[in-house]
Design goal:
Length: 434
């Protein structure tokens, strides 16, 4: 091993000219060996500077470098192991993606990229070294994601169970603004008294359903505890309101008139004035149909476009139907058998060019020919509809929560296994560097 390290240092010296040897600076030394890679003192120094810069931005005090250095070295070791995995997968972060990540990082700090460069220079950090560190971070993260995803298994029952819990929690956060009218029955009321009270309650509900003002009726007719407030109970969660109220308002929405319903004290009428904390998610679905032509050595881009232009004219003139043309010509076998119909879908599932067409086309209009990665298309929007996707959104959220939990657990396990299986020569052999 000593001979191997000496060879590394010897090869480093081969790049020096005679004149540069005259002004030789202290040689960057190997601090740790990780499998077939090395961590240099300059790597440690650069990361220490970054740690100090981040702490300064957050107003956070740090211990001495002698204490930090072990944490920095451990981070570099784990990063190196992940980079070795990335190299096996052929993962590369190109300059465009790197520049985008740095721009986003600068924006999160409320800085331009130029201002970020100035801040780095002020901390003694080379921008070139900083760029490569970000590239390393992104590369290591992608390798980690690829490897850990393979270890995660989420069962449908797990998603359903968590979605049920999330729905219950959502209901717990719901509040209702409720008003109340009570037609009271005194203790010992006769059958006639009960029938009269019921008729009065039904009459009030009839007036309310025709648009009568609930507050005015509560002032004039209610015997309830909030009669002098126009029957208003204000905002309450189901847990805070009387049980008889909570049992009735279940699954009722804003503006609902509920009742009359009877309790031991009389007949009750409720109005839900407003609801908050109950989120619903609605999405637009589009039913569209298309014809796809794929280019080949026989059919050029220009040829495909012209053919679709002619097909479009024939359909518009009534010479042929869209369905017949799709069945005869479309290179999308899944939709061609259905006359080109794609069924009800959200636009987000389609590639950007196709998505843009079906989001903007008026219903019943056939588009001009356009190109996507799949080929040349014409498309017609048959209909649009709003669909409640609250349940689907809750299940998606449940899946993301489960994935995040398992990813963090599995990532830690994977990193431990990676480190346990690696050859790592720890620091503490400076005497061998000469």
């Amino acid at each position: 091993m000593k001979m191997w390290k000496s060879l590394i240092l010897g090869l480093s010296l081969l790049g020096l000219t005679t004149s540069s040897l005259a002004a030789l600076q202290p040689l960057d030394k190997v601090v740790t060996i990780v499998n077939d890679s090395v961590i240099l003192q300059s790597d440690v120094d650069a990361m220490l500077k970054t740690v100090h810069l981040n702490a300064a931005r957050q107003g956070q005090s740090l211990p001495d470098d002698s204490i930090l250095i072990n944490q920095v070295l451990e981070k570099l070791i784990m990063e190196t192991l992940q980079l070795q995995q990335a190299d096996q997968f052929g993962i590369r972060i190109d300059d465009n993606r790197l520049d985008s990540a740095i721009a986003q990082l600068a924006a999160e700090r409320n800085l331009s990229v130029a201002q970020l460069q100035q801040e780095l220079a002020g901390a003694g950090i080379s921008y070139a070294i900083f760029r490569e560190q970000i590239r390393r971070d992104l590369t290591a993260s992608e390798a980690r994601t690829i490897m850990v995803r393979r270890r995660i298994n989420i069962l449908p029952q797990e998603v359903d169970n968590l979605a049920t819990q999330l729905n219950q929690q959502q209901q717990e956060g719901v509040q209702y603004n409720v008003s109340h009218i009570l037609i009271r029955l005194d203790e010992g009321a006769t059958q006639a008294d009960r029938q009269a009270a019921e008729r009065k309650a039904n009459d009030l509900v009839g007036q309310l359903n025709k648009g009568a003002n609930f507050t005015s009726l509560a002032y004039s007719a209610s015997n309830g505890p909030k009669a002098l407030q126009g029957g208003a109970w204000g905002w309450m969660s189901p847990e805070e309101m009387p049980t008889i109220f909570a049992d009735q308002i279940h699954a009722q929405g804003k503006g609902a008139i509920i009742g009359p319903f009877r309790s031991g004290v009389g007949y009750h009428i409720l109005k839900i004035n407003d609801v908050k904390g109950l989120e619903t998610i609605s999405v637009t679905e589009v039913n569209a149909r298309h014809i796809l032509l794929k280019t080949s050595v026989i059919l050029s881009d220009d040829g495909a476009k012209k053919e679709l232009e002619q097909v479009r004219k024939d359909i518009q003139s009534g010479q042929r139907s869209f369905a017949d043309a799709a069945q005869a010509l479309s290179a999308d076998p899944g939709s061609a058998v259905n006359g080109g119909e794609l069924g009800w879908q959200t636009p987000d599932i389609y590639v950007p060019e196709f998505k843009a067409q079906i989001e903007t086309l008026p219903k019943g209009t056939i588009s001009e020919p356009f190109k996507t990665v799949h080929g040349w298309h014409i498309v017609e929007v048959l209909d649009r509809r709003q669909v409640d996707r609250t349940d689907a959104a809750v299940k998606n959220r449940a899946y993301r929560i489960l994935f995040s939990r398992k990813f963090n657990e599995e990532a830690q396990a994977w990193l431990q296994e990676l480190r346990a299986g690696a050859y790592i020569e720890e620091p503490g052999y400076d005497d061998e560097q000469g």
